[in-house]
User: What shape does this take?
Amino acid sequence: MRTINVRETAGSNLVSRPTAKDLFDFVKNTEEPEVILDFSGVEFVSRSFTDEFYNLFHLNTERGFKFTMTNVPDDIDAMLKAVASTQDGRGKSKGADADVYRPKDMDDLDACFSTLLI
Amino acid sequence: MKIKEKINVNQAKLSAGLSAALRICTQVASSPDKADEVDLSDVDFVTPTFALPFLVFADGYVKDISMTNASSYLRSIHFESRGVDSGAMRPTEFAAFIECYSRKRFVPIVRFPSQKTRISDRDRILSAVENILVKQTGWKSNVTHGIKYMLSEMTDNISEHSRSEYGYIFAQCYPTYGYADICLGDAGITVLGSYQLADNNEIQTDIEALKAANKGVSTKNLPESENRGYGLITSREMLVSGLGGQYLMLSGDAVYVDTPNGGGYIEIPGGIRFKGTVIALRLPYRNDKFSYLNYLE
Assistant: This one.
């Protein structure tokens, strides 16, 4: 089973969906039936990267692809768990229902901003 | 028409810059001429919420808008040149350029590539900007990680949804007051335009689009996209509830603001519409109890 160093392959600061796709394509192109993804040295993953990573790697697990992860930093582990727990869309729409203001001119707009304390 | 305004934006209110920019945009929109000149000789100080909305407006407006007589201050933030074209610079050239700002209190307006084919360049440029901001503000790692999360989600949204070839970032630090303002913008298709590309879209106005985006409704409209749309809402929660900061989002003719005191949607008066999206963040320097991991959902 081959170990793939994520930092050497994709970088230490993983912040975009295409980077997750590139990592997946790299792993797929090794044609290994099972790989170990070594996260040592990875400093930060964004939610977008993690979501794409989750969808690509887990979707393909259902198709027989096997992978395990090692040396996953605590922050990255927490991000993976958060993304896994929200795949059904739960938790959205928090706090976005607010009043709508339609000021008639720029002075009225400034008054709206003052009302909103911003 | 030549437009000349005395401008000295008061940084105390995050919205003050936007108000000043809108007043100039209104004059441009009411001018009968095919091209307008904005004379900047009476501009003393502008904030990110002035600069990026104005540049996005100028980029997308039907008429040519030229800027003249920029002061040395405006040239130092690269306002009149519409941002530093970082995508045209060699990596080491940009690294050397941006390092000049490590002891200053602002990051100049940086125009960065946002096409999917240039993701590596974008990430390298924004990482360099983040590093300079950390040097300027002295943000501790707990705050820095939250800011990296927010900026990565927002720049990824530009690349994923705006269809703009480039984005802007501009930051101004206020050490005396203990906060920094960061603005990100794009001259793209707006949030509404992005929703309108989706099948079975029912969103018709900019206000509806901002409401949907801030509720986490994905524009992708696909079953496997159920987990999309979290980036914006978790970033806002992190900023406002976690750090006690302020959030302002402008797209088309709508503005959404959120603060620890509450929030609201505002329709911009006077028929002014921006062909693009701008997000402004007011980020406190310190919050020892903050951990971005508490806001991932």
About this structure: Chain B has a mean pLDDT of 93. The radius of gyration of chain B is 18 Å. Chain B has one domain: 2-295. Chain B touches chain A through 58 residues (CB under 8 Å).
